[in-house]
Amino acid sequence: MWLARTEGALALAATVVALVLHVRLFLSAGPLWRDEINTVVVATQPTLAGVWDRLESESFPLLPFVLLRLWYALGLGGTDAGLRGFGLLVGLAAVAALWLSRRREGLPPPLLALALFAVNPVVVRWGDSIRGYGLGELAILLTFTAVFEALQRPRLAAVGLAAIAATAAVQSVYQNSVLVFAIGAAGALVSLGRGHRRRAVMALGIGAVAALSLLPYLAVMGRAREYRLVSVEGATPGHLASVFWHALGAEMGLGGPGQVLAVAWVGALACALVAVAAPQPPSGWPRALAIYGLLVLLIAIPAQFAFLLYLGFPTVPWYWLSLVALMAVCLEAMLHSGSPAFRISRLVLAGALLALVSPRAFAYLGLRQTNMDLATAALAGAPRDDFVVVSPWFLAVSFNRYYKGAAPWSTIPPLADTSVHRTDLLARQLQAEDPIGPLVARVESTLQGGHRVYWVGLPPPSFERPPARLPPLRGAVNGALQGLYCANWTLHVAEALGRYGAPGESVPLDAHRPSQPYERVRVWVTTGLPP
Asked: Closest Cα partner for 515 from 405, 375, 384?
């Protein structure tokens, strides 16, 4: 009895910590960073047809954009804080889904899932961002629970809810299709093992319904080809494993506790495997749930890695959120044993993680998402005769949202549309005869006129001799060549600054909390030398 009460109390404490962390991020994240802005711009097109036409510039199917439009229709999306409320709601719903997955089966509280997943600051930060990843993790949690419930009680309502959850999962994040496949295949294997062929067909049918809902996106994927090629540079297994490790908790800024959190995942997986292998009665749904969780893990993890290797994109931690969510509920499903030794081990591990990780997670979630608003505020007084260069080019989306100054500006290279990430325009610049020439001429004329050129983003590069001109790219465009050309173009602009201007000076930004490293910019100014 004391063990059950202690488990319940610690699970409640972990839930409170998770809620505090989500609220901490809501209050601290501040302005939107570039990827969030990209999603908001696509979602707020004048019509749904306009949203559909813009999907090739995004990473998600339609559902996140439809829900954001609804948020706006309710009058809640008019400010950055209002949009943060949308992310907070999604994040809190994911915590609730962890409890739902246990209560529906009459099982103990989800202690490890709360400690490993709900209190993971990487999950909180990127799951609550104004993107589709939080919705994806929420929908995959619901799919795992709904499919197993449909296998237990194959009533029409249960099967329908499972199909809706699976469809929502793939309509939130494209790569969730791999995880829904793993859930459906695992459900079918468990059903076959119990002699329920019709239920096995049903499990596969739920996945098939979700897969069919993606057929309309084949045209979108075809249109997106020009966008995607610039980002493909061949992801390696080592790269994917490293980023996955960050997603498990070892994200930058967490230090030792982050590494401990990631290592704890490995320990929990080992314990879960031991629990499944322990002698158990041959029948019963708790045992079937454990086997279901094991099979989902065995299929989902390699399938996700294979899928991302095939795509070839350099990944970032938020790509893995749905898999991390699925791992959390799978672990809880596998740890079905009522053995006091297992329960005490789970209790000790969860308590230790909460004590160790929570303080550092609280600090990490105090970082803003961007400081671009502070950078643009520093340029508010720049007159029209000055000029602003934004580098790298992908910072243009957030600069475009927050810059209200009079001085004209450009990315390196110049892009005709900076409202969203237009890698198709970048690809065309790679194939142009002299895409950087007009920008260099603008920088030179501004400095020769005695005016100033501001540089926003990463530091201007140093060089020992004038850079060579690269010829137009005639072959296939990929991420490695894009990086090479952009670096060369940046050197040309920096060389013009050094030739016609005084040494650059750092422009101080208003004091504020630091931002997360993916969008932490600085500002420099170069003043033209007198003739």
From this structure: 375
The pair phi, psi for residue 473, each rounded to 5°, is -80, 115
Q: Can you spell out the DSSP letters for 162-176?
A: HHHHHHHHHHH-TTH
Cis peptide bond prior to 257, omega within 30° of 0: no
Beta bridge partners of 389: 410, 455
CA distances from 296 to 92, 109, 145, 150 (A): 24, 21, 12, 16
pLDDT string in tens for the chain (531-residue length): 778 888 889 999 999 999 999 999 999 999 999 999 999 999 999 999 999 989 988 889 999 999 999 999 999 999 999 999 999 999 999 999 999 877 665 678 899 999 999 999 999 999 999 999 999 999 999 999 999 999 999 999 999 999 999 999 999 999 999 999 999 999 999 999 989 999 999 999 999 999 999 999 988 877 666 566 666 666 788 889 999 999 998 765 555 666 888 889 998 888 888 888 776 655 567 788 999 999 999 999 999 999 988 887 778 899 999 999 999 999 988 886 567 777 888 888 899 999 999 999 999 999 999 999 999 999 999 999 999 999 999 999 999 999 999 999 999 999 999 999 988 899 889 889 999 999 999 999 999 999 999 999 999 888 777 888 889 988 777 777 888 899 999 999 999 999 999 999 999 999 888 999 999 999 999 999 876
Distance CA 119, CA 17 (A): 7
Q: How many CB atoms lie within 10 A of CB 483?
A: 13
d(CA 218, CA 20): 41
| Structure token pair of residue 473 | 């790219």
Interaxial angle between packed helices 176-193 and 321-334, expressed in degrees from 0 to 180 and rounded to the nearest 10: 20
Q: What is the DSSP letter of 118?
A: I
Q: Are 44 and 22 in contact (CB under 8 A)?
A: no
The pairs formed by 9-13 with CB atoms below 8 angstroms and a separation of 24 or more are: 10/109, 10/111, 10/347, 10/350, 10/351, 10/354, 11/109, 11/110, 11/111, 11/114, 12/109, 13/354
Could you please report the per-residue DSSP string of 149-206? Answer: HHHHS--HHHHHHHHHHHHHHHHH-TTHHHHHHHHHHHHHHHHHHTT-HHHHHHHHHH
Query: 265: phi > 0 → left, psi -120 to 50 → alpha, else beta; which?
Result: alpha
The C-alpha atoms of residue 273 and residue 287 are separated, in whole angstroms, by 13
Indicate the SS3 state at residue 37. helix
Letter for the amino acid at 103?
R
Give bridge partners of residue 93 from the DSSP assignment. Answer: none
Does the predicted model carry a pTM greater than 0.90? yes
Direct distance between the N- and C-terminal alpha carbons of the chain, in angstroms, rounded to an integer: 86
- The full length of the chain comes to 531
d(CA 23, CA 29): 10
Q: What's the rounded Cα separation, in Å, for the pair 150 and 417?
A: 48
Q: What is the 3-state secondary structure (H, E, C) of 230-293?
A: HHCCCCCHHHHHHHHHHHHHHCCCCCHHHHHHHHHHHHHHHHHHHHHHCCCCCCCHHHHHHHHH
